[in-house]
From TrEMBL:
This is F-box domain-containing protein. InterPro entries: F-box-like_dom_sf (IPR036047), F-box_AtFBL13-like (IPR053781), F-box_dom (IPR001810), F-box_SCFL_complex_component (IPR053197), LRR_dom_sf (IPR032675), LRR_FXL15/At3g58940/PEG3-like (IPR055411). Gene3D superfamilies: 1.20.1280.50, Ribonuclease Inhibitor (3.80.10.10). Residues 5-40 form the F-box domain.
Length: 409
């Protein structure tokens, strides 16, 4: 019988630690029992991956405590600086209050990437030290508490190398935003998800990518980012404040989704909901690719049309996608874009009709005062099939003399 040769153990430390960086830290630590060669190899792995889920423990906090002890032990025995730390843990099924001391110790190890995703019953206190890592390039903090949002309010921010920041389930204010852009001169991408925003102004000359997803916006907010290339706004909130877009000269891609909204705020005295003016579309005049998700309501439709009327032309717009629950009732808005987008090449319409029998849907209210010569491509995707698509093609024909290609899917 041939003698087996352990070729893996003979590899250089750099290769072994690189291999172990692809498994969880728990699995990496378990390799210490293989041989003397492996006893301390895990302590030099440049990537730490902590994963934990107590959903199967029926509220038993003993395992929660053991996991935290394991994390502490790993950090105490580190032999080298870190490159990446990934912490994905769910404590939501017990009363355990996870400590954030480990994150402070991680920050002292100077990682390049930190990604934290925690779910728990109680609130968190994010250590200030995580906002003063000189070589940190990417930071994600998803701090979900069952009862309230996590207030992120560091005394100061000094992250000179930070390029990407993602914050989830946090409460942020103007003071934080001012510190953020002053203390992160290299910040290019900002992603805010499910946050409460007491923010009135987002201003940065360096920011290239901005995403606001399902945030509760308390105040009207001005976004002024002349270097912004990509913008995504998705909200299903009923009490969003007005968003005003300014200085968007570099914007190329925009995806705007306002669903389930009355665009109003309750007046304390009368209980009356008023509609603040939308100032979104008129700030997208330089966009090349625009995606609009429309949730039909007469009030919202009028706001969209009023907003687009403030923009004389979308001179760079080449690709337009409209996604609507009732696209025929939104056709006046489509007509506005056809009139104001001289460079438009690709129009995609995705939608459905609640009921097509009897043709109860209104024709466009606007008088047909223009007709563009040519549109290269039109794609129509609908649940109602050919009958609905034919109606849309007929309506488009009133505004476009010649359509090069029509694709119905």
């Amino acid at each position: 019988m041939k003698e087996t040769v352990d070729r893996i153990s003979s590899l250089p430390d750099e290769i072994l630690t690189h291999i172990l960086s692809f498994v969880t830290t728990k699995e990496a630590v378990q390799t210490c029992i293989l041989s003397k060669r492996w006893r301390n190899t895990w302590a030099s792995v440049p990537v730490l991956k902590f994963e934990y889920d107590n959903s199967h423990l029926d509220g038993n906090t003993v395992e929660d405590w053991k996991f935290e002890q394991f994390v502490d032990g790993v950090l105490q025995n580190r032999r080298a600086l870190l490159d990446t730390v990934i912490y994905d843990c769910d404590f939501n099924h017990s009363t355990w209050e996870p400590s954030m001391e480990w994150l402070h110790r991680v920050a002292l190890l100077m990682p390049r990437v930190i990604s934290v995703d925690i779910t728990a019953a109680e609130n968190f206190e994010c250590p200030d030290s995580v906002f003063s890592c000189p070589i940190l390039e990417s930071l994600k903090l998803s701090l979900y508490s069952r009862y309230d949002y996590t207030i992120v309010a560091p005394k100061s921010i000094a992250l000179p190398s930070l390029v990407t920041l993602e914050l989830c389930d946090s409460e942020l204010n103007d003071n934080f935003m001012q510190k953020l852009f002053l203390g992160c001169p290299a910040l290019e991408s900002l992603n805010l998800q499910d946050c409460v925003l007491y923010v009135s102004h987002v201003s940065s000359n360096m920011l290239k990518n901005l995403a606001l997803s399902e945030c509760l916006q308390i105040h009207s907010m001005r976004i002024s980012c002349p270097g912004l290339v990509s913008l995504s706004i998705f909200s299903t909130s009923h009490n969003i404040g007005c968003i005003s877009l300014e200085n968007m000269a570099s914007l190329v891609n925009a995806d705007i989704k306002l669903l389930g909204m009355d665009l109003g705020r309750m007046d304390d005295n009368s209980g009356f909901h008023y509609l603040p003016n939308l100032k979104l579309v008129s700030g997208l005049s330089n966009t090349t690719c625009l995606v609009l998700h429309l949730d039909y309501s007469p009030e919202l439709q009028l706001q969209w049309e009023k907003d687009i009327a403030n923009c004389r032309t979308f001179k760079n717009l080449k690709i337009l996608k409209i996604i609507s629950d009732d696209i025929i009732d939104d056709f006046d808005l489509i007509a506005c874009f056809l009139q104001r987008s001289p460079s438009l090449q690709q129009l995609t319409l995705i939608g459905s009709l609640t009921e097509i029998e009897g043709d109860t849907h209104e024709e466009p209210r606007q008088e047909i005062c223009f007709q563009r010569e040519y549109l290269e491509n039109v794609t129509i995707s609908c649940e109602k099939g050919d009958e609905f698509a034919s109606k849309l093609v007929s309506m488009l024909g009133k505004y476009v003399k010649t359509i090069g290609n029509i694709i119905i899917v």
